[in-house]
Amino acid sequence: MIYFNNVSKVYNKDSVALDDVTLTIPAGEFVSIVGHSGAGKTTLVKMILADDIPTEGTVFFESTNVFKLNNKELTKLRRRIGVVFQDFKLLLNKTAYENIAFAMEAVGKTNEEIESDVPHVLELVDLGHKKDHFPGEMSGGEQQRLAIARAIINQPELIIADEPTGNLDAINTYEIVQILKKINDLGTTVVLTTHNRNIIDMVGKRVITMEKGKVIRDDKDGKYSI
Amino acid sequence: MITAIKRVVKAGFVNFARGGIVSWAAVLVVTITLSTITAIILLQAVLHFSLNQIKDKVDVTIYFTVGAPENKIISLKESLERLPEVEKISYVSATEALRMFRERHKSDYPTIQALDEIKENPLGAYLNVKAKEVSQYESIANFMKSDNVLVQGASSIVDKVNYHQNKAVINRLNNIINGAQKLGFLVTLILVVTSVIITFNTIRLTIFISKEEIGVMRLVGASKMRVRGPSMIEGAIYGTVSTIVTLLIFLPLTYYLSKNMTSFLGLNIYEYYISHLLQISVVILLSGVLLGVISSFIAIRKYLNK
């Protein structure tokens, strides 16, 4: 589904974010990318969204080179990918309901679809009672669950979760990982970046370990090893 | 498509309502700009009015010799009327001139007595010529000087043309009028450009505040128009609300000015404002809305191309 072909990202000679990364992520897989801060995890996932441009190499989403897409095509590609960030990236002046409705409006869903799907997905992440709250009025865990709800509402083929539990406590972290596993069980590919050992052990699926921009390990059923 | 437009418009209104103090700050700045424009419109009206009054006081009078035949004067008048520079000509016959003279001096007994003693009319007829522009008197005067083909022998019946006596005054007046118009235009230009720049920067600030949101919207897959549209609607709302505020501010303001300044300005500014309310509203509404929409459109472009 996703193919990284000799991807490098060099800011300057002392700052190499990615160093000749080649890897494949098949459809339906749950992949965890681990490594210390600055190992290149976030840069790697940004490449899938073409949110960052490599110095060398290409990234394919199915058969499409994501860096060859024009603005319109890129918008279409991003609609097939749900993204969850460490800092949630919610629309702060929109309520929980409107945040999710916005993502549906963006892909051109009808008002009827929005009215029927949004309450459903809010219930799924246990936020039904907070639908009229603004993100500022919600806890970190709630905001992240809202971000996940937004990421899955359009049934994307791929979910990218970039350090989704970085700002959360243990209980909220557990909940988020369980939601992501459930999403993967339903057939959606999940790419998760983290430096949290517990999460990796909890998931127990493929682990890609990065260090200084290089992939140093790629284990099926991996454990956290650095 | 219609649903998309409805959503964009609704989002614009919701953003404006939730913008709180930022929205009202933008409205305030746009109001100041529109007030400047309105003040300039009113000032131009006063200037125009005063200049017209001064222009109206300028004319050229052609005095004819005593006993000049009326048909010659009339044909000269007709040929003058054909000149494109001439706005209006009034003919005063010798008899009429005498009647007006008597009227004017009716309490001046010795003069009237002297007039009665002469018996015959010592006054000649005259033509009062008004030009469309102050600068055109010279060419009319020149026309009179030349014994042109249209009116053979016209110069023989013309006693004098008072343009040459008034020439210096007319020229100076012409320079003042031109200068005032140029200065008015320059001041207008500077004020408008300054307020437009300030407004543009304020709207840029309101968009800068939401630049994170713009990035998030794009990541979620929103089209450019879906991100840009609500901001443009918000810009239009700034313009519309500011127009209403500006129009309301100028009601008591012009009323106050008309109460206290009408004799000084020579123009009742409140009456002018009320009678031109529709035109002024259209001008400032268009300025406000265009300013808001275009500023938003340009300001947001920077954050969209990511």
Show the helix and strand layout.
The complex is a heterodimer of chains A (226) and B (306).
Chain A: E1 2-12, E2 15-25, E3 30-34, H1 41-48, E4 56-61, E5 64-65, H2 71-79, E6 81-85, H3 96-106, H4 111-124, H5 140-152, E7 158-162, H6 170-185, E8 189-194, H7 197-203, E9 206-211, E10 214-219
Parallel strand pairs in A: 3-8, 3-9, 6-7, 7-8
Antiparallel strand pairs in A: 1-2, 1-4, 4-5, 9-10
Chain B: H1 2-19, H2 21-57, E1 60-64, H3 70-81, E2 86-92, H4 94-104, H5 109-118, E3 126-131, H6 137-145, H7 154-157, E4 158-161, H8 163-209, H9 211-220, H10 224-265, H11 269-275, H12 277-304
Can you describe what's shown?
The complex is a heterodimer of chains A (226) and B (306). With 226 residues, chain A is an alpha/beta fold. Helix content of chain A is 35%, strand content 28%. Chain A has helices spanning 41-48, 71-79, 96-106, 111-124, 140-152, 170-185, 197-203; strands spanning 2-12, 15-25, 30-34, 56-61, 64-65, 81-85, 158-162, 189-194, 206-211, 214-219. In chain A, the strands form 2 sheets. In chain A, strands 6-7-8-3-9-10 form a 6-stranded mixed beta sheet, with helices on both faces. The longest helix of chain A has 16 residues, at 170-185. With 306 residues, chain B is an alpha+beta fold. The radius of gyration of chain B is 31 Å and the shape is elongated. Chain B has 2 domains: 2-54 and 174-304, no CATH class; 58-166, Alpha-Beta Plaits, CATH 3.30.70. The interface between A and B is medium-sized, with 23 and 22 residues.
